[in-house]
Amino acid sequence: MSSQDIPEENLPAEHSAGHNEHGAVTVADDKNPFADPGLPPHEHRVQDIDERAAKRSERVVAMLFTVSMLATVGFIASYVAIPHDKSIFVFPIGHINALNFALGLTLGLALFAIGAGAVHWARTLMSDEEIADERHPIEAPPEVKAKVMADFKQGAKESALGRRKLIRNTMFGALALFPLSGVMLLRDLGPLPGTKLRHTLWSKGKLLVNVNTNEPLRASDVAVGSLTFAKPEGLEETDENFQTEIAKAALMIVRLQPENIKDKQELDWSYQGIVAYSKICTHVGCPISLYEQQTHHVLCPCHQSTFDLSDGARVIFGPAGHALPQLRIGVNDQGYLEALGDFEEPVGPAFWERG
C-alpha cells in the first residue's frame, strides 16, 4: 500500500507547496541567482497511515528483542552445560568445538537481534520526515540549548517509546540480559585463590630433594660456601602441575659458618649453618642463581636485586621490595634434611592480598 492509495484526509499534514523553511527562493532572480531545488515530495510509509501496519511492525521489533533475550539465555546455558572438550561436525566447516560453536552462535544472534530490532523500529515507526535547518554559530546560546531540548523531547515523543510498551519492555529486557554474557565469561578466571598464594608444597617432615640428582639431601652433602637447589619430596617433572608448584617451592640451600650468620631467627631456622631460602626473587619472580661465596650475597640475574644470606636475606641492592622468605629446616633420624613447616610468608613478588 502506498500513500497514493490513502484518502487525503488520512495523510499527515504537509507543508505548503513551494515553501522552504530556511527562506531560500525556489526561482532564481537577479537578487538570488542560485535557486534552492528543495526536497523531493515526501513519501509516507504505510505505518504512518495504517495503525494495523504499525502494530505489525511493533510486534516484529518486539519479536527480535525477545529472540535476543532467548539467545542470551542460550549463551549462558551453553556455557554451563556443554563440556569444553566436546566436538561436533558442522557442514561444511567440519569438526569443531561444540562449546565455541554454541557460544559464537548464541552471542552473534543476541547482538544481531538487538541491532535488527533497533533498525526496524527506526525505519518503520520513528518519524522519517526530512527537515531542513538553518546553519548556526558554533557557540551555543540559550536559544539553541532550548531548541536542542525541544528536539530531544520531540524525538522521544515520535519514538512512541511511552506508547509502545511492548517494544519498550522487550528492548529493556534484551539490553538487561545481554550483559550477562560478559559476566558469565568471568567464570573462566577460575575460583578465588583463597590462601593458595600464601602456601607451597612444603610441610613438616618433607625431605629436601636435590633438583639435579633427584635424591634427598643429607647435611653432609652441603659443603660450606656451596649453593644447591632443592625441591619438595614427591614433586616430579612429569607432574601436570610441576611448573606451578616449583615456581613457589624452589629452594636455595647454602651452608655458612654459624658464626657468620647475623640474624638470630635465620640461625634458629638453620641446621649447623645450612640455610634454606626461596629461590624466587621478590621483585618480579625471576629465579635467583648467582651466589658470591665471600660476601654471602645472592644476585637475581634479571634486575640485579641483591640479598644478604648472612643477614636474613635482606635486600641490599636493586628493586626487590622485601627479603627472601626462609624455610625452617632440620634433619630426620636418617640424617636427611627435612622441612619443619611451610614458609611463614608468601614467596615471590608482593600481591595485593598480602597482609
Please tag this protein with its features.
alpha+beta; 5-stranded antiparallel sheet; 4-stranded antiparallel sheet; Rieske_2Fe-2S_sf; metal-binding; 355 residues; 2 domains; single chain; Rieske Iron-sulfur Protein
Structure description:
- The chain has a five-stranded antiparallel beta sheet. Strands 7-8-9-10 form a four-stranded antiparallel beta sheet, with no helix packed on it. Strands 1-2 form a two-stranded antiparallel ribbon.
- It is built from eight helices and 13 strands.
- Helix content is 32%, strand content 14%.
- With 355 residues, the protein is an alpha+beta fold.
- A hairpin with a 5-residue loop joins strand 9 and strand 10 (314-317).
- The protein folds into two domains: 3-189, no CATH class; 196-339, Rieske [2Fe-2S] iron-sulphur domain (Rieske Iron-sulfur Protein).
- The chain is elongated and about 110 Å long.
- Belongs to the Rieske iron-sulfur protein family.
- The chain crosses the membrane at residues 60-81, 101-122, 166-186.
- It is found in: Cell membrane.
- InterPro entries: QcrA_N (IPR045603), Rieske_2Fe-2S (IPR017941), Rieske_2Fe-2S_sf (IPR036922), Rieske_Fe-S_prot (IPR014349).
